[in-house]
Amino acid sequence: MSNKNNIATAGNKGAGVKSDCFVQLELTKSGGINLSLKSKVDVMYGNSIKKQVREMLAFFGIENAKIEIVDTGALPFVIAARVEAVVRQLIRTDKEYLLNVIPENTFLTKKDRFRFSRLYLPGNTPKLMINAGIHMPNGVILDLEDAVAHNKKYEARFVVRNALRAVNFYGAERMVRINQIPNGLEDLDFIVPHNVNLILVPKCESAEQIRLVNERIDIIKKEKGISSNIWLMPIIESALGVLKAFEIASAAGNIVSLAIGLEDYTADIGTKRTNEGSESFFARSMVVTAARAAGIQPIDSVFSDVSDMEALKQNVLKSKALGFDGMGCIHPRQIEVIHNYFAPDEAEIERAKKIVNAFYSAEEKGLGVVSLGSKMIDAPVVKRAQKSINLAISLDILDKNWREKMQ
């Protein structure tokens, strides 16, 4: 991002850049619009790109300018984001160039939605967003924080905003990780009005940070006439955050899950993260306990070695054994492993069936207690069994008779 001498830039170019464009805008005093386009798809889409750019400049009232575009196959939502970013660096305006919201991006999500996997997508790298939904993660995270360079954060907001409106994520929950509070409060203007389902609050260390986020969300919702819920997922990433985990987890009614970020946490306590995870056992247990006490989902950290699927499998099994409901992923190939091993296995499903059967039998007989064999079963055990059955139904791994019974 640059705005020296009435010149601004946005976007990416160079080797390896795809589905993006680099835009440089210089405001001039006369001469009309001088537009230069270098595009690998010029023959097919050059005229439509030029038309879109000229329409946008007219929309913002710019009559004289020199604009240079290096295009590597950017879709219209990316071109719009890049052009608007350079324009708004140079002129004061409250106008937003908003693309139509596609029907696929209007659905809302429930508080207790299954969140086995959430796929991180850098907020300033459009090529990774375009087909992310076909890998079927439970959620996609458009990341404005660690995955975006400091000097690119402003322009990334426009890409993320436009992606929320125009990219089909095939049913994945639309999530955005904002920047650390207080800087992240400025991100909210770009996402709250644009169909975000869930906002991740990174490096969270107090209930006060959650209050500030919700306060700003409420202001924006009132201004824009928005009534739908926007869920929050605080991320615990420090020693202080771990010690305040329950305070954070119970800070607001729209918090649906509590996550842990182990890269920053281990750095904060001065140790190295390992696959065995002994250095983070306390912190992960605290996050699970705090989340369960607050009645929300505990979500584990990402597993950073994208090449080792066996190590990922073992990590998922440990995570599930600790009580987590899901984890983050940084590569699509991790999604299937995460789904397979967070899902209830055959033994879990069979035990859940027996517990639920015993519960129904006790109800039919008017009994006040539920027993399985010689053991008494209390309400939390029944609830957990029913959750396993519901998971199995949603994943289509429960036999037909039981699906009909639970309907």
Walk me through what this model shows.
The protein has 407 residues and is of the alpha/beta class. It has 3 domains: 4-90, Ribosomal Protein S5, domain 2, CATH 3.30.230; 103-342, TIM Barrel (Alpha-Beta Barrel), CATH 3.20.20; 346-406, no CATH class. It contains 15 helices and 14 strands. It has an 8-stranded parallel beta barrel with strand order 5-6-7-8-9-10-11-12. It has a 4-stranded mixed beta sheet with strand order 1-2-4-3, with helices on one face. β8, α6 (207-224) and β9 (231-236) form a beta-alpha-beta unit. α2 (76-90) packs antiparallel against α4 and α13 crosses α14 (379-394). The longest helix is centred in the C-terminal third of the chain and has 19 residues, at 346-364. It is elongated and about 90 Å long. The termini are far apart. The mean pLDDT is 91.
Note the topology.
Blueprint: E1 7-11, E2 21-27, E3 33-39, H1 42-59, E4 65-71, H2 76-90, E5 117-122, H3 127-130, E6 139-143, H4 153-166, E7 173-177, H5 184-187, E8 198-201, H6 207-224, E9 231-236, H7 239-243, H8 245-249, E10 257-260, H9 262-268, H10 281-294, E11 297-300, H11 309-322, E12 326-329, H12 333-342, H13 346-364, E13 370-372, E14 375-377, H14 379-394, H15 400-406
Parallel strand pairs: 3-4, 5-6, 5-12, 6-7, 7-8, 8-9, 9-10, 10-11, 11-12
Antiparallel strand pairs: 1-2, 2-4, 13-14
Helix pairs in contact: 1-2, 2-4, 11-12, 13-14
Low-confidence stretches: none
The residue fraction in helices comes out at 40-55%
**Residue-averaged pLDDT, rounded?**
91
Q: Gyration radius, to the nearest Å?
A: 24 Å
> What is the count of DSSP helices, taking H or I runs of 4+ residues?
15
Domain unit count: 3
* Amino- and carboxy-terminal Cα gap: 55 Å
CATH topology description of the largest domain: TIM Barrel
The amount of beta strand, in percent, is 15-25%
| Inertia-based shape | elongated
